[in-house]
Amino acid sequence: MTPVNLKSLAEQLNMSIATVSRALRDSHEVSDATKARVRALATALNYEPNAYASSLRRNLSKTIGVVIPKVANHFFALAINGIEEAARQSGYHVLIYLTHDDYAREVSIVQHLKGGRIDGLLMSVASGTEDFAHIKSLQETNLPIVFFDRVCAEVATAKVTTNDYESGYRATEHLILAGCRHVAHLLISNNLSIGQFRQQGYLDALQAHGLTPDPDLVLHGVMDNEQNVALIRELLLRRPDIDGVFASVERLAISTYHVCKELGRRIPEDVKIIGFSNLEAAALLDPPLSTITQPAYEIGREAAKILLRAVEKKKAVLPAQSIVLESTLFERRSTASE
Amino acid sequence: MTPVNLKSLAEQLNMSIATVSRALRDSHEVSDATKARVRALATALNYEPNAYASSLRRNLSKTIGVVIPKVANHFFALAINGIEEAARQSGYHVLIYLTHDDYAREVSIVQHLKGGRIDGLLMSVASGTEDFAHIKSLQETNLPIVFFDRVCAEVATAKVTTNDYESGYRATEHLILAGCRHVAHLLISNNLSIGQFRQQGYLDALQAHGLTPDPDLVLHGVMDNEQNVALIRELLLRRPDIDGVFASVERLAISTYHVCKELGRRIPEDVKIIGFSNLEAAALLDPPLSTITQPAYEIGREAAKILLRAVEKKKAVLPAQSIVLESTLFERRSTASE
DNA sequence: CTGTTAGCGCGTTCAT
DNA sequence: ATGAACGCGCTAACAG
Questions:
Q1: Across the beta sheet with B183-188, what order do the strands follow?
Q2: Residue B121 lies in a domain
Q3: Across-strand partners of A93?
Q4: Quick one: which of B270, B268, B269 has its CA closest to B331?
């Protein structure tokens, strides 16, 4: 099977490679007649330009990279959806890499990306990452980078996040206004700025409503879910006065729900729960849990758009702006009360 | 900033480009001394080979493509996870494309892929796809293809699926053995072989246990969820004798759960429900629903491994074998009965 | 062991 | 409006 490339097309049409190339790229310096001839044969033979030759020549790959901790997570899955949508609209391809929150793996991936394989990078850093030299080094190769969700404060570039501080504030206030006086806060311990912001929103909301923050009511969860269930059980037993729980992570909200059921604490009469969530699980429980939901799809889409705009303009250095998208608070009540 | 490539390295080391290239690729025909010198400079300057130049020259991109209907779906998200894992282990990159179950989009993507951008393709076809000419045409470019989950019978190549027939059979039998006599089957209407297999398993299980299949008990759902809820409500009202429901799709199982609650049918006393599911939602309901769960991660991983093996051996044509992985039946009972 | 040469397929000069 | 020639960065064949 003879290869279908510019050369073979040119031979069959009795013209030069250059003319065929120009015709296919719709150059204005080629007659309409030949354009038609070239295109006819190209589509007939199902010609598709070799992406690598083109990339090599133009030093531009029409490909962006996405580096995220995981994909089996509704937030990131939705974000990828948004990214792919924006990329496709601009004719870009999407390479995906998973770090599994492993620092060494993240470094290895980022190093690999220096080979000019991508025109731009979208990234959500691994939770364990504290040293950002690898990212800075990548940025120095003039590769545009946009962070989303788990941003990296030490690297100056565009970032797309949600209003974590305000969400924490609103979630906590929601519980307070519903009558809660002893609101616990569950979060996963790590050095991500996200958790810190939500935590601060929680603290400020308490203060603003005349409640005294109690460190004993703040539970730092771990990675293992079984352990978290035990920690939550312990907390609820130690502090029977808890009448509201704000969970920074969906799993912790669900676990709280189960522990409450197990301990016979009625929801929401005895304990009201609100949690960050991008999954529908919380809404399906009986009674359903109220949630703060991040606009994951929009975050991915917006981040990709900003990146692609920079790529198209060959702007390697992005302004270190922070785009903040609003989360939505869904208040859910049991429908069984009718 | 001077570019870091073989040429610049060679100049600084006073040797030829070829030697540098060989040293970096650890060729056995280069002295250890020069290898050391080359590597030292390469790492010092953070050299990374240009992926496109290499791909063009070797006609091999170390990249595989993944074409799936959507990613915001736990099954596909887990599958991608498995694919990325296998790819990474073999040093491959992963390009991702979403069809959103749109035939035109699938065709456009597949056409794009003919440019030699990928060394192999993993694919789950769009639900609306009936004409497979675009896929066959891609296969004719000697690109190895492996289907997973939503396979395409008309194209002869390797396929990785779950035991849909058997799963349908086991799910139905599970309900029958639990005492159900009037088992309904809910599925999404389309021309995918998957639904057909599950349906056949359902029918055969009924027959095997002396029950007569009743076409009135088979509900063909649609894409819109609101409509499905209405259809299910209508079915349960029309047929109060229904005491078991087998849902081929998670959403239908969840919807059935809600309709039962709304109509005052107790679960599982009045109606037992079992559904295909890859999400934890079904397990979180109260009472939890029993599920048939596909090994999504393993499917992705296995499919990728088969594909990569073919790619490495430059075997364009894969044996038209079908790998079938076992689903798991989770029987869940309410824990509140204690 | 190392250097020289010749492309991979394409896009962009510079000619005509 | 078209063709000839060069080079993107890298690898492979052939010399020595």
A1: B218-221, B183-188, B244-247, B272-276, B290-293, B328-330
A2: yes
A3: A63
A4: B268
Residue A41, min C-alpha distance to chain B (Å) = 16
Work out if A93's Cβ lies within 7 angstroms of strand D: no
Cα–Cα separations (whole angstroms), residue B242 to A126, A268, B221, B246: 49, 33, 17, 11
State both tokens at A330: 């869904």
Amino acid A52 CA to nucleotide D6 C1' distance, rounded Å: 19
Are A318 and A144 in contact by the 8 Å Cβ rule? The answer is yes
Question: What are the chain B neighbours of A88 within 8 Å (beta carbons)?
Answer: 97-98
Higher pLDDT, A195 or A122: A122
Statement to judge: residues B35 and B136 lie in one domain: no
Which residues in window 21-40 of A are less than 7 A from strand C by Cβ?
21-22, 24-25
Q: Using the beta-carbon criterion (under 8 Å), do B98 and A112 form an inter-chain contact?
A: no
| Rounded Cα gap, residues B305 and A22, in angstroms | 41
Contact assessment for residue B143 and residue B113, using Cβ atoms and an 8 Å cutoff = yes
Question: B54 lies in a domain?
Answer: no
- Strand order, beta sheet including A290-293: A218-221, A183-188, A244-247, A272-276, A290-293, A328-330
Size of interface A-B (CB pairs under 8 A): 128
Structurally, chain A folds into a number of domains equal to 3
Structure tokens at B295: 């090994």
Q: What is the pLDDT of residues B210-237, one digit of tens each?
A: 999 999 999 998 888 889 999 999 999 9
- Which H/E stretch holds residue B64? strand B63-68
What is the reported pLDDT for B1?
65
> Within the 38-77 window of chain A, which residues sit less than 8 Å (CB to CB) from chain B?
46, 48-53, 55-56, 61, 63, 70-74, 77
pLDDT at B337 over 60: no
Q: Is the CB of B5 under 7 A from strand D?
A: yes
Say if residue B174 is in the same domain as residue B290. yes
Per-residue pLDDT at A86? 97
Look up the domain containing B22 and give its range.
Answer: 6-49
> What CATH code is carried by the domain that includes residue B105?
3.40.50.2300
Contact between A123 and A97 (Cβ < 8 Å): no
Q: Give a yes or no: residue A76 inside a domain.
A: yes
Contacts 24+ apart (CB under 8 A), A252-256: A252/A186, A252/A187, A252/A188, A252/A221, A252/A228, A253/A186, A253/A277, A253/A282, A253/A289, A253/A291, A254/A281, A254/A282, A254/A285, A254/A289, A254/B284, A255/A225, A255/A228, A255/A229, A256/A186, A256/A232
φ/ψ of A264, rounded to 5, equals 80, 15
